[in-house]
Amino acid sequence: MSPNLLSVREVADRLRVHRSTVYALCDRGELVHVRVSNAIRISAEALDAFLRTHSTSAKHRSSAKGGVEDPDVQI
């Protein structure tokens, strides 16, 4: 079974951000991706995982459990 791979443009459209933001997330290692020749592809599962770990509700759950939010963390 092959994973559903999304292009940078498709991910940017889903997140409603610019393509350069998606490239930056990939460069910083925050968004798991694969390179196919010269193209970057992101699996739907990797995007879902990114959204789960960067969601506001996930940060609130962390704070409620005694976690410390980092104000310098940017998506």
Rounded mean pLDDT is 84
* Assigned CATH architecture: Orthogonal Bundle
Oligomer: single chain
- What low-confidence regions span 5 or more consecutive residues with pLDDT below 50? none
What does this 3D model show about the protein?
The chain has 75 residues and is of the alpha+beta class. The chain has a single domain (5-64), classed as Multidrug-efflux Transporter Regulator, Chain: A, Domain 2 (Orthogonal Bundle). The chain is 49% helix and 15% strand. It has helices spanning 8-15, 19-27, 44-54, 56-64, and strands at residues 5-7, 34-36, 39-43. Strand 2 and strand 3 (39-43) form a beta hairpin. Helix 1 crosses helix 2 (19-27). The protein is globular and about 40 Å long.
Topology, pairings included?
Layout: E1 5-7, H1 8-15, H2 19-27, E2 34-36, E3 39-43, H3 44-54, H4 56-64
Antiparallel strand pairs: 1-3, 2-3
Helix pairs in contact: 1-2
